Amino acid sequence: MSTDRHPAAQRLYIGGEWVAPDGGHYDVINPATEEVVGAAPEASRAQVAAAVDAARDAFDGWSRTAPEERAAVLDRAARVIRREAAGYAELAQAESGATTGTARALQVGVSAARFERYARGALEPVETAVPPQINAAGPMGGGGVFGAVAVRRPVGVVTCITSYNNPWANPAGKVAPALAMGNTVVVKPAPQDPLSVYRMAEALAEAGAPPGVVNVVSGARPEVGEAAVAAAGVDMVSFTGSTAVGQRIAEECGRQMKRQLMELGGKGAALVFDDADLASAVSGIGTTFSFYSGQICTAPTRVLAQRGIYERLVAGLARYAEHLSVGDPREPGTVVGPVISAAHRDRIEAYAALAVKEGARLVTGGERPTPARGFYVAPTLFADCTPTMRAVREEIFGPVVTVVPFDDEEEGVALANDSDYGLLDYVWSGDVARAFRVAGRLRAGGVGINTVGRNMEAPFGGFKRSGVGRDVGSYALHAYSELQAIVWPG
């Protein structure tokens, strides 16, 4: 690693200061062009410890800051993000390979909206009255009427480990509610696209976040994240990423009894019944091919199609995929950009080859698209799949959809629930009563009925190996707080 190849190399953000990294820098690569975007800092374990200490030192003051003041800081940060949105989106696109519309609206735009939402969230009531209780006299003291209130308090220092698929919205969804509740944070961004998170730290500093309230430490080596999780001064870990990494983090949290919020993998089932609006189902499922190039845990990648519409649905998905423009995400007509890295592209292609070997029918895709440079994967559709195929069971995290037939409702529900994951499932049916009945039987943290849209005030999180805890809306404020009971005699 070297610090002299890039005169404007990024520094770490610790305790309100921009600090040169002990481990030098590594290149951040544009997945669309394979060119160097910039130089990201490689923190040492000692620097991670310094960031935790800075957050610990800042916690007492920030946690006792008036909610109105915390709200003002978050609101000002949102205004800075909106003011600088064009430049921020350009950087996010270069780091992540997102299309222009995605980088502007769904990365930077959503980030600003989340800071605005939790500026309001800082002002939400934290006390919940508990009904009074009449106690008889006994060994614990005299009888009487006892009042109580449950109060949400900040957890303390939160390590936020963010995902590469959205370098703005994902960190904002952790940092903003954590700060709103009075916590301080150490953010460890994904190694593939960390530079945007440093711009977020700049926005918060300009907005008046006191030194140590927000700290950012990055690194390509696993030691950085491990140190940010294991540090004794950390009270909670919020992680978005793979189930395998989440399990290792959970083990460390368990040893120290740290609170955790885990948003992990997904293999969303999309049950499409004979009476479904097929155009709606195709357009919803088709987002897997285009939205973040399939690099999203909520995607309906595992389609379960009732036999009466099976062939029509497969044909509709094939036509949809074949009309998607793959290429440079900066071009206005591009719908499908690159995946994050060469290694991830190779992993997706290996799954496609395995699906064919296991007997799946390749309907469309499967080949590497024509751009000479960049990490592109063609939208790929497999039909005639069986529930035991690895491409059906395992999270591929790319623009790949598998289709499995089923006969009746009982079989469809059983197939949907036959998964290690349980994040978001989907039901398409013209019978609303059946759709809600089926939704109630699905072992998933969320169910979309005739839509892949989401209500951003509804709780978000997974069953089974898809995670622990819930966030979004006011549920995120609950996630980044502890409940304290206060009791008094009446």
UniProtKB/TrEMBL annotation:
Domain Aldehyde dehydrogenase: 18-485
UniProt keyword terms in alphabetical order: Oxidoreductase
Pfam families: Aldedh
Name of the protein in question: Aldehyde dehydrogenase family protein
Species this chain originates from: Streptomyces lunalinharesii
